[in-house]
Specification:
about 550 residues
Length: about 550
């Protein structure tokens, strides 16, 4: 409901600009705050970011007609009071308008006194709607508050009890796991130093070997526990950067290939090429090595391990490690990421702390990535890491080639590629957009650092879509867009504003000036993608017409 000290806000939509201006001026003189637009599409874009009390819309307009505008507008703001106006009214169209949610139906030309009465009646209806909705909301809130409080208390108690039990179980398991290698270290040490237990030189060497192995296992266990503690306390320090997968894969291969060779396991990596991910390099390598180590330990003799890298979407890559081991049952998978779980194997069968996958999952989450698994008993398992992709920070040098099986090229029809021109003077913003569309097979990116360069590139390359910053070093983005509109060669190209100038008035002015969409920084990735797809579809439809 409009504040009583503020004039009611009315949005007037009519493709007859002279009528819009006259009506705006008239109603402004009657203490209304008026805004006029020439199309339903522009009105809906403005309603998405600003609130109005009344919508006065013409029935017949190019593109969206008035009834379609009313239906869409009430989905954005159900309390918006909508009135249809038309020069050729019929009973059928009036009924259709009321069904769509309009409060009234006005036939042009109309007298000022008549329209003022209709607007006042619509405002009263809107205020009653809002008051009733508020009362209903208060009743629902009061009714739900006690239930919510009781539910929260019950959930809090259950969470606390579960956390205490998990903590007790973890401490008990940790005590057992720490004592096991300590028992070996202390026991064999006493045997080495005891005068009452005679031993040969070879036996002493064996005892020392057992002490070394138990000490190494204890160190790994302590490091894993410390990693978990750092993550849980929020003290884990990460250095997120652009990490080349080719280098990481090569380093992992160098470390794991000798272990795999001992068991006759074939270890292959798909070429990662120039793919990069956003990660902490050391922690990413730690996660991959843990997955590879498990793939070796739990594989069959003469088995295979295949390391792959494929895009999940435009923003993520999936790094996967597939083995030919015994696989996991559904019950084993459910308990897989619990502390001290050794994939269902006894501690005597395979070396390990039982914390590696727990640490790996927590590290993945700390890097805003996800760790998952799929497995079939008797056929093997595939562990994967879904992690954000990003462009290289600098030109890449040739990376060492892996002795890998390269995935054969698949013959797939390539989509028609379109060109997107980004006019932006900040290189980091250009890099960000380049990363967002890096894996879109249908787009090529061009960039220009100022308005004049953008104009020249638009006229030379005729892109299908233009992204425009508003604050450019030479001329404003709005001026560039208007110059593009004035040129027959570029007038048809949709231009999307992508700017840090983000006030409600700026958005309204930008849409009124002719931008297809007005996106603000920081970028909302979903809205960004939707705007690009919509603009490209619009451009294609115009070309087809």
């Amino acid at each position: 409901m409009n504040n009583s000290s503020m004039p009611p806000r009315i949005l007037i939509v009519d493709d007859e600009l002279a009528h819009v201006r006259a009506l705006c001026d008239t109603l402004r003189g009657q203490a209304y705050d008026t805004t006029g637009l020439a199309s339903g599409e522009a009105a809906l874009a403005l309603l998405a970011v600003e609130s109005f009390d009344l919508l006065l819309v013409d029935l017949m307009m190019p593109g969206m007609n008035g009834i379609a505008v009313v239906e869409a507008a009430r989905k954005i703001d159900p309390d918006l009071a909508c009135i249809i106006m038309t020069g050729e009214g019929t009973i059928a169209s009036a009924v259709q308008a009321m069904k769509a949610g309009a409060l009234d139906y006005v036939v042009k030309p109309f007298k000022v006194s008549g329209i003022l009465l209709i607007l006042a009646r619509a405002l009263e209806t809107r205020q009653l709607r809002i008051a009733n909705a508020r009362l209903e909301l208060l009743l629902r809130q009061h009714t739900a508050e006690l239930d919510a409080m009781n539910r929260d208390l019950r959930l809090a108690r259950e969470v606390a009890e579960r956390a205490n039990q998990e903590k007790t179980n973890f401490l008990a398991s940790m005590s057992h796991e720490l004592r096991t290698p300590l028992n070996a270290i202390l026991g064999f040490s006493q045997m080495l130093t005891s005068d009452s237990i005679p031993s040969t030189a070879q036996e002493k060497k064996t005892f020392a070997s057992h002490i070394f192995g138990a000490g190494r296992h204890l160190l790994t266990l302590i490091n894993d526990i410390l990693d978990i503690a750092k993550i849980e306390s929020g003290n884990l320090s990460l250095s997120m950067e652009s990490v080349g997968l080719a280098d990481i894969y090569h380093e992992c291969w160098q470390m794991m290939e000798p272990l795999a060779r001992k068991r006759g396991i074939t270890l292959t990596f798909v070429e990662a090429g120039s793919m990069h991910v956003l990660a902490d390099r050391t922690r990413l390598k730690q996660v991959l090595l843990n997955l590879l180590s498990n793939a070796v330990k739990y594989n069959r003799e003469q088995g295979e391990i295949h390391v792959d890298c494929q895009p999940v979407d435009a923003r993520q890559l999936r790094l996967s490690v597939r083995d030919t081991g015994g696989g996991l049952s559904a019950a084993q998978i459910e308990a897989l990421f619990q502390p001290f779980n050794r994939l269902g194997r006894d501690a005597r069968d395979e070396e390990g702390t039982g914390l590696g996958l727990v640490v790996s999952k927590r590290l993945a989450e700390a890097m805003q990535a996800g760790l998952g698994v799929a497995s079939t008993p008797g056929r093997g398992s595939t562990f994967w890491l879904d992690i954000a992709s990003c462009p290289a920070r600098q030109p890449l040098q040739e990376s060492p080639r892996l002795p890998a099986i390269v995935r054969p090229a698949e013959t797939m029809p390539l989509p028609d590629r379109k060109t997107l021109l980004y006019v932006e003077d900040n290189p980091l913003n250009v890099t960000l957009v380049a990363g967002l569309i890096h894996f879109r097979p249908d787009l090529d990116l061009l960039s220009a650092g100022d308005g004049q360069a953008g104009l020249d590139m638009a006229r030379r390359h005729l892109p299908q879509l233009i992204l425009m910053d508003s604050d450019l070093p030479d001329i404003s983005g709005t001026q560039v867009m208007q110059l593009l509109r004035a040129d027959a060669r570029t007038a048809h190209i949709p231009v999307i504003a992508l700017t840090a100038v983000a006030g409600p008035g700026d958005i309204r002015q930008g849409l009124a000036a002719g931008f297809y969409r007005y996106l603000t920084k920081p970028i909302d990735v979903v809205a960004f993608s939707e705007a690009i797809n919509s603009a490209l579809e619009s451009a294609t439809a115009q070309c087809s017409a």
